[in-house]
Amino acid sequence: MCLNEKMLYSMISPDDAEDLVCMWLFKKYGYVTIPSSNKISTQKYECVLLDTKAKERKHVYVQVKKGAVDLNAEDYKDLAGDVYLLTTEGTVANAENYSNVHVVSSKEIFDFATDPVNATIIPENIEFWIRFLGATENQNNKNNGIKGIMFDTNLSYSDTNEKEMLEKNRICAYGAAQRYINSFKKDDYVFYYSKGKGIIAAGKILSSESIRLENADGLYRDVEMIVPPLYANGEIKKCLSAAEIKQLLDRGFYFASTIKTPYLSEQQSLTLINALKG
Predict the structure, then answer these.
(1) Which of 70, 73, 191, 220 has CB atoms 3.0–4.6 Å from 94's, for a disulfide?
(2) Cβ distance 172 to 165 under 8 Å?
(3) What is the pTM of this model?
(4) How many domains, in total, are found in the chain?
């Protein structure tokens, strides 16, 4: 098992896939769902949304199919409003003939679900499967030699932790999260992931064992910096965003955790290091 588009869609339910499309439409266009509309028994659409920005009432219709199910835009031409069609493995025919019918990319919905910016609006049952697939892939790959870990710098909870890690050439974790420091081995790569920015620095683990912090409840590992943070006027000048990471490595990640899962291979780690240097 691994965290990719096909595997995630195989895990979530049809209702989950529908929820993802509705949340994507809300985030992208401000459309809101009419809750009672998803109780209507119809084969034509799953639910109805409203365009909150329209000057006159405008309905938006959603149809979602999991698997290799084909859809035909012609079946929706008579609906008085925009129509969004998603089939996770099938095709949508004749969409180019109808201006009100829009084909939703299954990859775009997957990227939406795994983007850390959207973590607070992804339903918990979908988030569970994203975390599960990432953790399972980590478990399967943990003994496959040198790995890389994207590690959160705790900026959400501390104004000083990130700076201390970078100045002291360490990777640290505090409180309950300190157990994640034990995920590293000597010679693994660490990527410092700063909330709202992405990867801002990279290094290699020097410590064979986790070390207790002197003045806080936490653990750390010593790091040899490979790509130190690059500052300009007190601000980070160079970083790799979540979108850039996914594009460079052509895969998805679960970013809304201390450890961004799944782990990176040695080659993936070198790809990110070269991009951060460039």
Answers:
(1) 73
(2) yes
(3) 0.76
(4) 2
